[in-house]
Amino acid sequence: QKEVEQDPGPLSVPEGAIVSLNCTYSNSAFQYFMWYRQYSRKGPELLMYTYSSGNKEDGRFTAQVDKSSKYISLFIRDSQPSDSATYLCAVARTGANNLFFGTGTRLTVIP
Amino acid sequence: NAGVTQTPKFQVLKTGQSMTLQCAQDMNHNSMYWYRQDPGMGLRLIYYSASEGTTDKGEVPNGYNVSRLNKREFSLRLESAAPSQTSVYFCASSPEGQVITGELFFGEGSRLTVL
């Protein structure tokens, strides 16, 4: 079983839509949760980081962690064509030297 | 600031050939990583170096070797390339102890095809 599972999509939405991206993880020891954005032919870049449970908001982006169901989500409000990218979730344990990544969800926002 | 620089960006090899992927960072980070990214598999850690002078295996180290040349540079070597090593390789760096908060800075990737 993979440490973290992510629906690969692809997901296609009209501009202005609310987007929901999701991952599930297997080990309750994970305490750190990240979302990365990866544009085509580029390396991933950190979008949001959350520790333990709860919500975190940054502009149009909201990250949500539900540790009881081992479920992490990223919501994008008022989606823009520039949001078209692959979104990767990642998890980590306290003291770890590594992250475990989901496979990524490819998102296309249509103007 | 260039950040993390990888060379080459593209390479085609024949089975059995060897090559070295080079990575350099100019952010004075202690930790450096090599990942591979494959469709349906996500990013998987090959090797990492927590600090200068140390290297450790990740999830998929077989067929690879690494060298932490100095604080800036971390190279990945394929001694005898196999078609299963066709992938996009990413180098990344992180301030010491900060990878768990997502402070992982990636290069643009090296696309390797093994025929």
What would you note in describing this structure?
- The complex is a heterodimer of chains A (111) and B (115).
- Chain A has 111 residues and is an all-beta fold.
- Helices cover 0% and strands 58% of the residues of chain A.
- In chain A, strands 2, 4, 5, 9, 10 and 11 form a six-stranded mixed beta sheet that branches.
- The radius of gyration of chain A is 13 Å and the shape is globular.
- The mean pLDDT of chain A is 94.
- Chain B has 115 residues and is an all-beta fold.
- In chain B, the strands form two sheets. In chain B, strands 2, 4, 5, 6, 9, 10 and 11 form a seven-stranded mixed beta sheet that branches. Chain B has a four-stranded antiparallel beta sheet with strand order 1-3-8-7, with no helix packed on it.
- Chain B is globular, with a radius of gyration of 13 Å.
- Chain B starts with a strand and ends with a strand.
- The interface between A and B is medium-sized, with 28 and 25 residues.
How is this structure best summarized?
The complex is a heterodimer of chains A (about 110) and B (about 120). Chain A is mostly beta strands and about 110 residues long.
How big is the Rg of chain B? 13 Å
Mean pLDDT of chain B: 94
Major β-sheet annotation of chain B = 7 strands, mixed
Note the gap between the termini of chain B.
36 Å
Residue windows where pLDDT falls under 50 for at least 5 positions of chain A? none
Number of strands of chain B: 11
Q: Report the average pLDDT across residues of chain A.
A: 94
Radius of gyration of chain A: 13 Å
Q: Which helices and strands, and how do they pair?
A:
The complex is a heterodimer of chains A (111) and B (115).
Chain A (H helix, E strand, L loop, with lengths): L3 E3 L4 E4 L4 E7 L4 E9 L6 E7 L2 E5 L2 E6 L4 E6 L8 E9 L6 E2 L3 E6 L1
Chain B lengths: L3 E4 L2 E4 L5 E7 L5 E8 L3 E8 L6 E2 L6 E5 L5 E5 L8 E8 L10 E2 L3 E5 L1
Parallel strand pairs in B: 2-11
Antiparallel strand pairs in B: 1-3, 3-8, 4-5, 4-9, 5-6, 7-8, 9-10, 9-11
